[in-house]
Amino acid sequence: MERKIIAILRGVTPAEAVAIGTELVEAGIGIIEVPLNSPDPLDSIAALADALGARARIGAGTVLTVDEVEQVRDAGGTLVVSPDTNPQVIAATKAAGMASYPGAMTPSECFAALRAGADGLKLFPASLIGPDGLKAIRAVLPAGTETYAVGGAGPENFAAWRAAGATGFGIGTAIYTPGLSPVEVRARAEEIVSAYDEAWA
């Protein structure tokens, strides 16, 4: 089973990226995002792509411009995640052969993202949308639309989000905060994977 869990490593450094990424993959998480407001993020993405690209999807988060899309591509990333719905960023991502997951909160943003070619939606901030909000939006989205709840989804509410129609999750501080060791990240990842598997059982 491919778990639709994006590990968001905000604040990770290039020196620790591969060790942490390896523990995530070993725990069963196969999608890793390094936000571009992390220290030297492109170096971390390049290191992760080189070491783990055959076993995981590596990409960038907080991607706001077309120039940043190109930098992520050049670093070896295959995934672009944004906090907003920017048609130019989506188009550039697809033109570069990468997967696009823009942030959206309203039905209008969701449909704008899909019309621009997005592969799926990052529902952000999920804490404000809530499972009830997703359920309402899901009723009008095209069948099969990927919806990742980000910013308010975690092991304690995976089941509620799944029941509302979420297909995956982006997990940030619950899985990584600066200063955590790879072993600590592995323990958190295993807990999240266990809760995800239970929700999808």
UniProtKB/TrEMBL annotation:
Pathway terms, separated by semicolons: Carbohydrate acid metabolism
PANTHER family for the chain: 2-DEHYDRO-3-DEOXY-6-PHOSPHOGALACTONATE ALDOLASE-RELATED, 2-KETO-3-DEOXY-6-PHOSPHOGLUCONATE ALDOLASE
Family: Belongs to the KHG/KDPG aldolase family.
Subunit structure: Homotrimer.
Protein name: 2-dehydro-3-deoxy-6-phosphogalactonate aldolase
Sorted UniProt keywords: Carbohydrate metabolism, Lyase
InterPro entries the record matches: Aldlse_KDPG_KHG, Aldolase_TIM, KDPG/KHG_AS_2
Organism for this UniProt entry: Sinisalibacter lacisalsi
High-level lineage: Bacteria, Pseudomonadati, Pseudomonadota, Alphaproteobacteria, Rhodobacterales
PROSITE patterns: ALDOLASE_KDPG_KHG_2 (PS00160)
